Amino acid sequence: MALHTSELLERARNIRLVCFDVDGTLTDGRLYFDSEGRESKAFNVHDGQGLRLLEDNGIAVAFITARTSESASARARDLRLSHVFIGVKDKAACLKLLCERLNITTQQAAFMGDDVPDLAAMKLCAMACVPANAHTWMFDHADWISSKKSGEGAARELCDFILESQGLMPAILKKWGVNP
């Protein structure tokens, strides 16, 4: 895992948008198809809670994925996400447009991806993030590397890092009846 340097902490303090690729980032990367060709995927409940915690604390969350996937759309609906981009060919252009719409810069955004289709968008952001099992080419381009694998809590680890860096965790824990 990359060190939490003072520069990385400063970047995390300024994050207003966290974007996630879906396959291989929020899932373990495996695709399941039944005999009718219907797709299914498994999502980690801890990752979902982390995404909700970001949104509930004023940090926008977006799915930006290249694959057209009803499973990803259903998960986004389940999480009540407002920014869902499915079947995106140019993730960097999508990210730029979303930042304009939210009236923020790409330097107030983080992107978590796992493979080369995510690189251009990741390079635009203040924080380029990857799960522990991302493709090997990705590690040289990552500012932050999860200790967890995709689909096994990597996204939650990123969410917690950002929330902690912004000093939001004590209030979140207190809301749930825990005195930090």
What does this structure look like?
The mean pLDDT is 95. β4 (60-65), α3 and β5 form a beta-alpha-beta unit. The two termini are 25 Å apart. The chain has one domain (6-166): Rossmann fold (3-Layer(aba) Sandwich). It is α/β, with parallel strands linked by helices and 180 residues long. Helix content is 37%, strand content 16%.
Defining key terms:
alpha/beta; 7 helices; two-stranded antiparallel sheet; globular; 180 residues; six-stranded parallel β-sheet; Rossmann fold
Topology, element by element:
Layout: H1 6-13, E1 17-20, E2 32-33, E3 39-40, H2 45-56, E4 60-65, H3 70-78, E5 83-86, H4 91-102, E6 109-112, H5 119-124, E7 127-130, E8 144-145, H6 154-165, H7 169-175
Helix pairs in contact: 1-6, 2-6
